[in-house]
Amino acid sequence: MPRLNTQILIAALLGILLGASIGLLGDDSLTKEYLFYGSGIVGNVFVDLLKMVMIPLIFTSIVVGVANLQAHHQARRVWQYTLLFFVSTMALAMVVALVASNIFKPGAGLHLAMFADAMHNFEAKQLTPADFFAQFLRSLFQNPFAALAQGNILPVVVFALFLGVALVMGGARYQHILNMMQEFLDLIMRMVGWIMRLAPLGIFALLFKLVATQNTELLTTVGGFIVLVFATTLFHAMVVLPFILYLFTKKSPLWFWRGAREALITAFATSSSSATVPITLRCVETNLQVRKNIAGFVVPLGATINMDGTALYEAAAALFVANLVGIELSLAQQLIVFCTAMIASMGAPGVPSAGMVTMVMVLQSVGLPAEAIAILLPIDRLLDTIRTAVNVQGDMVGSVVVDRLVGNGLQEPDSQANGVQGNNPDATS
Ligand code: ASP
Question: Is the pLDDT score of 184 beyond 90?
Answer without folding.
Answer: yes
